[in-house]
Predict the 3D structure of the following.
Amino acid sequence: MTNKESDCQNVDITAFSDDIFVWNYNSTATSGDGVEFYAKAYGWNTDSQSGGYKVAGSTMPNYWQGNPAKINYVYTNVTSTDAKLCNGSYPSCSAGTSTSSYNSSSSSSADSSSCCPCLTLEDCLGSIRISGNYLVYLQSKGVDENGKKINYCKTSTSNTENLQTYNYIQVSSGNKLEKITIIPIK
């Protein structure tokens, strides 16, 4: 990204879609409250019992970029089985650990073979809530039906209630969510 709000960039690739927007480079706090990511579909509903992660608009620089594998969900005021596992010191289940020994009806902590099923945004990206004017860009890498490596992209300027319907960004589909970018827009 360049440092000038008025710059346009030529893209020398075959593109199947585009997004046209005005970057709110100089006063990003005026774009809104920020963007929230949730481990489950419709994660902002109080009964969803979902972990979340917020990028606040007031603290966002000119744009925000994160590695989903390094962004941990927060399970504040969440009492679900996921929260019990994810608020402890359990590793991500994507590391190959099993949750089979965890008794979800028990109020005690899980044993050492337990893991957190949705520790990071890479593990589970269920929904995105956009509070204001932001362009959210998700980039994943995968393999197409012919075994060819391919990049997938999804952009949005409004809430995405159920990302489980987008196989190209789900780890369970063999794809890897690699990058998230938030751009404040006007």
In short: The longest strand covers residues 134-143. Confidence is low (pLDDT under 50) at residues 96-112.
